[in-house]
Amino acid sequence: MVNQRPNVLLIHGHDIGRYLGCYGVDIETPNVDSIATDGALFERHFATAPQCSPSRGSLMTGRIPHINGLMGLAHQNWELHDDERILPQYLSDAGYETHLFGLQHITQDTDRLEYDHVHSEGNLYPGVSPSVHQANRARNVASVVTSFLEKSAYDAPFFASVGFFECHRVEEENGRFGFDADYYRGDEPESVRPLPYLPDRRGIRHDLGEMHGMVYALDDAVGTILEALAAAGIEEETLVIFTTEHGIAFPRAKGTCYDAGLEAALVIRYPGVVDAGVRYEDLMSNIDVLPTILDLVDVNRSESIGGRSVAGLIADTETGYNERERIFAEMTWHDVYNPVRAIRTGRYKYIRNFWHLPTVYLSTDIFASESGREVRETDGIPSREYEELYDLRDAPQEDDNVVREPRYQDIRRDLSKQLYEWMDETGDPLLDGPVVPGDYEEILSWPHDSS
């Protein structure tokens, strides 16, 4: 049966950034690569935040974290504002049957998401123990998705959000955080290519080799789902999107507003509609994904969505295309207070830090990892500059802060002004002072004898 509108299959990985073969990484990911071969790949797609819940909230609302309310992790008392609309709600109103498979991590109340069907239990927090949330591991999620595709009658177009646990670190018995090498088969440290923004040290190679096992498992699961889609005879009428929410869980990546922390994969396949085999270098933010999907399936969207659709760039649509000259990113709360705002253009990155912070923020899972041990003495100490400016042409790894150099002062002032104006226009609460955590009322509920 051919639906009036296409099915929408949104597959998303965790803590994986662009660590994929189709993005030039020395790792084999043939199944994700096949989506790129048959569709569109975005070379410069970035998240609004270098952490899970805020980035995922932007993906699902088309709005930045300090606007939609999700400025910290969903399991730490941060929530979307009550009036926020998310992608499955837009599609449900247009007649889609909506399904949630695996991880979501944007709310503690799954009912708030209003999916018609929730297929996985425990789909909030990815977990730090190897035994936690087995249902969210890629192999298990793919099995459930396959069963759904085999049994469905497709009387209405469906939307399926498919979230994988991989590549989140897990806490091991020794208290360190790794990639569950007992469950996944990775690669030997000597065989992996070092990361360009980190020193080539044994502990970092060790972690990369372990992480490869998770990447392989994720890619295998994508292949399982694509095969099931083809076997069901509906791949020609299904819009497939594969994306990730921020950079890998390594120092100077996850939890930072450097490119390695904000980078995200985005590949889109829609046979006969999206131009196949094209790689786009246009700047793109993950708030742009929701309006792009809605335009591709011809569903109206709210004017409050802050993202810009790229449907007019990748397909023959009447929606037009407004190219980005800049993107914005932010971080406020993770496991500690880390208030940062950033603006990126094609050539420059300007970062404004709003607190006394270590040289490089290391989230708990990274700090307590083999990789974290390699850089703690240099990165985990105070203090970070309040302003950072990088010329990405000359220093693509953002390792040369030129904020004080005379020849960059016009650029510094211009980007600083643009960042402030953006914060002011969007009502960023950080301009009014420190942002209290989501559990602030609990902090204040201090039983004491006032007599």
Automatic annotation (TrEMBL):
One Pfam family it belongs to: Sulfatase
Molecular function (Gene Ontology), one example: arylsulfatase activity
InterPro entries: Alkaline_phosphatase_core_sf (IPR017850), Sulfatase (IPR050738), Sulfatase_N (IPR000917)
Keywords assigned by UniProt, alphabetized: Hydrolase
Source superkingdom: Archaea
Residues of the Sulfatase N-terminal domain: 6-299
Family recorded in the similarity comment: Belongs to the sulfatase family.
Protein name as catalogued: Arylsulfatase A
Native species: Halostagnicola kamekurae
